[in-house]
Amino acid sequence: MTGLWYEITAETPPLLVEAVAAVMREAAPGGLAVEEPVDLLGPEEGYAVRAGEPVALRVYLPASELGAVLTQQLREALAGYPEVELSARPMYEQDWAVSWREFFGPVEAGRIAIVPSWVEYEAAPGQLIVRLDPGQAFGTGHHETTRLCLAALDETVRPGTHVLDVGAGSGILSIAAVKLGAARVDAFEIDPIAGDVARANCEANGAAERVSVHGGFPCEGIPPADLAVANVSARADIELAEALAASLKPSGRLIASGFLTSDRDDVVAAFSEHGLSLTGEREERDWALLELAKG
Question: According to the model, what pLDDT value does residue 109 have?
């Protein structure tokens, strides 16, 4: 199995290189590559830098939940530099499977234990096991927002619940919802690779009959749900606030996360504007989760 990384490139005007490089080093402490535009002068003559042309600054981030968070932070940090052009391309690494298998271990949240597919694990009495192979999708249970969502689902999902999972990634929250008793889960994931991973993980956990993975949100033909969970980002939560509110039954509830505590007020305001009231909230380190109710 090969593994996926992303090469993030910022085409940067020369005068901004120092400032942009500092931002990129903060997002990707593993290192920064600087590629200046050059002309080769010929054998044994070296090269000449083309003055005034953009410089390519490159960092490499893993296709993991951590990589997704770092990429989003980088985009937001560079939003104040409209002259900088960001691009990304996938890069496969033959040894990636070995490296992330060494890094990821079991994670416990409420009654749920997220256990990598290659790890031996004995469940405690009453514990529900989600066997997970993240593959090239985001969602391993190791990020704070995922753990917050798992704990909130544990307290919210009841037998027969219809759940929407927005930003499904590896399918971790969809599978957890089924393990907790959800009768139906409609999962939404715009990345087709992640969608395939989510389907495979649902199949491996015996949840495929109750989970449908869709390519976008919202989708026609899906009835209003009892509960929606959106572990995405502050920007996505705000942009989807109206659609999420409309996707719920009159007594429906929403779990929203994926954002920093500093964005909490903006996200609350967006949901309040569309008829959702705050009923609870959780924090872990600098990350926030909101629990909201319709009506």
Answer: 82
Architecture of domain 3-98: 2-Layer Sandwich (3.30)
The CATH 3.40.50.150 domain(s) of the chain lie at 104-294
Per the CB < 8 A criterion, the answer to whether 140 and 104 are in contact is yes
CATH homologous superfamily of 104-294 equals Vaccinia Virus protein VP39 (3.40.50.150)
Whether the model pTM is above 0.70: no
**Per-residue pLDDT at 1 exceeds 50:** no
| Percent with pLDDT over 90 in the chain | 42
* Strand order across the 128-132 sheet: 107-109, 112-116, 128-132
The torsion angles phi and psi of 256, rounded to 5 degrees, stand at: -125, 130
Sign of the alpha-carbon torsion through 155, 159, 165, 169 = positive
Confidence of residue 266 (pLDDT cuts 50, 70, 90): very high
Domain with CATH 3.30.70.120 in the chain: 3-98
